[in-house]
Amino acid sequence: MSVPLLSARNLHKAYGALQVTDDLSLEIIEGELQAIIGPNGAGKTTLIAQLSGQLRPDSGQIAYEGRDITRLKMHERVRLGMARSFQITSILPGFTMLENVAMAVQARSGSSFRFFGSAARERALNEAAMAALAEVGLEDRAHRIAGPMSHGEHRQLEIAIALATKPRLLLLDEPLAGTGGEEAEHLVALFRRLKSRLTLVLIEHDMQAVFALADRISVLVYGRIIASGSPDEIRRDPAVRAAYLGEEVA
Ligand SMILES: Nc1ncnc2c1ncn2[C@@H]1O[C@H](COP(=O)(O)OP(=O)(O)OP(=O)(O)O)[C@@H](O)[C@H]1O
Predict the structure, then answer these.
(1) Domains with residue ranges and CATH for the chain
(2) Which of 44, 56, 88 maximizes ligand 1 atoms within 8 Å of its Cβ, making it the mutation to test the pocket?
(3) Is residue 13 within 6 Å of ligand 1 at its C-beta?
(4) Which residues form the ABC transporter domain (predicted)?
(5) Does the structure show a pLDDT above 70 at 215?
(6) In what order do the strands lie in the sheet with 67-68?
(7) Best exposed site among 2, 56, 77, 84 by fewest CB in 10 Å?
């Protein structure tokens, strides 16, 4: 069997007495969209933070293409092709959409543009930023100030920021939170497009979107994965229904 793009083995993370990640193992296969669902406080954001390098696990290993990356910092993982969008907005409201993407790319990828002189660096950053804005459908608003844009546009901008680092693997933490109607539909269509060329990990409470998009769903409860399978398998799983989904998705 081929090596998973990303794998976690026996991860543990506690906040004081609270075990938030409890002997958790999972595999992300290249090309799939794997959703991670679970009740509030199950440890989904904490898991993404460990996978992306924002948070160090207490024990356990994380591997990318079979290489141990447990001790790599976030920007080092970005350079390997991993990117994360944030649940809490990280946008600078006084700057344009383009400046937001360009600055975030520079900050998140560390010194990956260091080989360029300053003018060429700025051009390379702007090109990467503009391409990412085009991909999420914000090209025409690139020079608008980010602050007054809508919540849905901020969400698109955050995804553009992650895409501008040219990832192979994109970790999305509740990208639909606070959106609805057309905005949400727009984002779901974007994830469908991204799915054809990227590996995606999606944390999301919107079950309609999750079941429409996911190739595989893992269910996290109290820091443990209690089930992992196709949307149909998860929908039918009695343990999942008892612990989380109830009858609503059935
Ligand atoms: N820095 C922290 N210090 C102490 N406790 C924390 C910290 N961060 C998270 N927790 C706690 O860890 C648990 C898991 O939080 P986490 O945000 O990972 O859950 P989640 O599944 O993403 O929840 P939600 O769906 O509500 O976003 C929660 O009980 C939370 O209160």
Answers:
(1) 1-81+167-250 (3.40.50.300), 92-166 (no CATH)
(2) 44
(3) no
(4) 6-247
(5) yes
(6) 18-28, 6-15, 59-64, 67-68
(7) 2
Please give the ipTM for the structure prediction. Answer: 0.96
Q: How far is the CA of 210 from the centre of ligand 1 (A)?
A: 21
Phi, psi of 52 (to 5 degrees): -85, -10
The pair of structure tokens assigned to 185 is 């539909």
Q: Which residues contact 174 (CB under 8 A, 6 or more apart)?
A: 45, 87, 203, 204, 205
Per-residue pLDDT tens over the stretch 148-183: 999 889 999 999 998 988 899 999 999 998 888 888
Put the strands of the sheet holding 169-173 in their side by side order: 82-85, 169-173, 199-203, 33-37, 216-221, 224-229
Instruction: Please check whether residue 77 is in contact with residue 137, taking contact to mean a CB–CB distance below 8 angstroms.
Output: no
For ligand 1, whether the C-beta of 17 sits within 6 Å is no
Q: Is 115 in the pocket of ligand 1 (CB under 6 A)?
A: no
Strand partners, 78: none
User: Distance between CA 192 and CA 148 in Å, rounded?
Assistant: 27
Which value, to the nearest 10 degrees, does the dihedral of the CA atoms of residues 52, 237, 189, 168 take? 30
Query: What's the N-to-C CA distance of the chain in angstroms?
Result: 33
